[in-house]
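Exercise 3.2. Students should predict the tertiary structure of the chain below and write it as structure tokens, then compare their answer with the key that follows.

Predict this chain's 3D structure.
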Amino acid sequence: MAALALVLGACGSGPTGSDQGLKGADQQVQGKDDINPVEVSKLKDGGEFKWPVDSLADNWNYNQVDGTVASGARMISAVMPNIFVQKADSTIELNKDYLEDATVTSQDPQVITYKLNPKAKWSDGAAFSWEDFAAQAKANSGADPAFLTASTTGYEDIDKVEKGATDQEVKVTFKKKFAEWKSLFGPLYPKALNATADEFNKGWVDGPKVTAGPFKIGTIDLTGKLVTVVRDDAWWGEKPKLDKITFRVIDRTALADSLANGAIDWYDIGSNVDLYKRAQQTPGIKIRQAVTPDYNHLTFNGAASAVMSDAKVRTSVMQGIDTATIAKAILGPIQPDPKVLGNHIFLLGAKEYKDNSAVAKFDKEAAKKGLDDAGWKLDGDVRKKDGKELAIRFVIPTPNPTSDQVSKLVQTQLKEVGVKVDIQAVPSADFFKAHVNVGDFDITSFRWLSTAFPISSSKSIYALDPANVNQNYGRVGSDEINKLFDEANSELDDTKRADLANKIDSAIWASGHQLPIFQSPGAVAVRENIANFGAVGFANNPYDYIHIGFTS
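Answer key:
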């Protein structure tokens, strides 16, 4: 998964942008996109596409713990290889630019044989080879904790990576079965990146040293807070329609004005009412909507030194938070009757979805009793234990209207059960790397962007390895959750795997790990003359950078 700071405000009904409001994820047609599809030959050749981001990449190594922020991932995917492509309906397709074939060639042990496209080369001239796969598998396996990887899932199950008939044939043998094996090796990196822990962790902080995509780096301007990627003449695949994509840091509060004055070409409306209304009023702008694997939540810190280290305290605090009221306050003006999310792994509309949230259901009296039982007794307006106040630090990025609104609603609600909430606003550029990633919060809130691999992509968030927390920023977990993830990821039967995933979800709720609030309506504001881009559904991993273009 990738993490994204919150966007507030909703949208009109998809392509029409009417005042009737947006449909929720549970009311939309699943698996569709809304991207103004136009045959590539009919598009203008060239042009600059101006793309707003919250921040520049904290690390251009997506597999490193600081590299998973969505803004950075969007830049990385334009210049680095994704060997599989995620489609709008969450199906997975081989990326023929990089792979000729990928097949299960043995069931027991499980062996995957990859045949690389012989034309695929890194920007330094080296051909893709089995050694790139071997180095990436080793670095992300968790065998050496010095490699600060965002996720060891799947890689830890690999026994060996070997050369096949040629250097461009890769044989990956698993020591235990891994169902969602297509989630691995994307993005793929050259072997040099994974050679040492120092190179893995720090070598690509300032920018990629080698690329292999339809675009290459043009400029990385830390002062101007922008990155440009330009067509790579060495690219062996279909030529991109755009000359250049400019990723520019734009404050959330400035998005609407930036779109209106031409500084950017689109923005993600998320749950922001103002962004929605401004898009409706801006000439030449279209509101597009599709079901998006993107949801808003609260993460709780359960580390041993944290004020909410006790699971009973965390679940009781959750019971004091009325997520339905928060969802209505945020989305109500543009999405009638927004639904709260009751599952951490499956999203609304998925056939596997079940609401497993009973343990954290809003109930002020149950919250009070739970906190009493945990030893936090009401003393005036605030609960205390051993003379210490139950004061929770809620860390949010700024400027960010949604985060500000969510934190204040939580603050008001928890005051009613005797919990003090101190809101700490930090610069957006520092939010993840200096606070979320290192556990510097009691509660925080952002958006998770899920993938077509909901179970394996969730393991790094909810399983707990004290030696490497991966994306488990709240340091909450249990042996039961770890065991269930191992069982689910090795289960090849889809129905059985989904049942195990819902057992995992129930255990996550009981642990007081995260409190999902609502799923994004999936709406974006984009210029009418932009084709093959908009509300892409699941097709954001990677985006189809090659076919984005202008109709005029």
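Discussion points: Residues 6-18 have pLDDT under 50 and may be disordered. The longest helix spans residues 494-511.
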